[in-house]
Amino acid sequence: MDKLDYQILNELKKNARQTASDISKNIHLSVSTVIERIKKLEKSGIIQSYTAITDDARLGNDITVLMEISMEHPRYNDDFIRQVNENPNIIACYYLTGEFDFLLKICCKSSDHLEQIHNRIKDCSGVRLTRTHYVLRTVKNIHSSQAECDN
């Protein structure tokens, strides 16, 4: 990865639907070089996929919470992870160090809906403790690193 690759990535992060021609104009590189570099970034796995970012509130999911989960023992992790992956309202799951083992980001319609999700999580084998934080407002929400190369 060099500075040009980082510039291409930053352009795609701003708008993944922009054309190679637009990217080439913005970073002063030929269209064919931009296309070739994007293909290499995809093939290497640096670019994993392209996606649409949605507004959860406009989709009817007015509540966002971060839920910390502490497990009794790591032997329960695989089953817990499987259940997390089956729940479409859990939009992110991080395995952590420290007091809690997992951090979940959950989007749902109402406090009643959250209660149902919370009860399902607490019913998972090995869940020892949960701590839930309501998100009042999103201050920053980027979907991947914005770090650039200093080359």
From the structure above, extract its key features.
alpha+beta; four-stranded antiparallel beta sheet; 5 helices; 37% helix
Quick recap of the structure?
This protein is of the alpha+beta class. The chain has five helices and four strands; from the N terminus they run αααβαββαβ. A four-stranded antiparallel beta sheet has the order 2-3-1-4, with helices on one face.
Structural class: alpha+beta
Helix content: 25-40%
Number of helices: 5
What value does the average pLDDT take?
92
Number of strands: 4
Unreliable stretches: none
Largest sheet: 4 strands, antiparallel
Description:
It is a single chain. With 151 residues, the chain is α+β, with helices and mostly antiparallel strands. The chain has helices at residues 3-14, 20-27, 31-43, 77-86, 111-123; strands at 63-71, 90-95, 102-108, 127-134. The chain has a four-stranded antiparallel β-sheet, with helices on one face. A hairpin with a 6-residue loop joins strand 2 and strand 3. The relative contact order is 0.17. The model has no long low-confidence stretch (mean pLDDT 92).
Layout of SSEs?
Blueprint: H1 3-14, H2 20-27, H3 31-43, E1 63-71, H4 77-86, E2 90-95, E3 102-108, H5 111-123, E4 127-134
Antiparallel strand pairs: 1-3, 1-4, 2-3
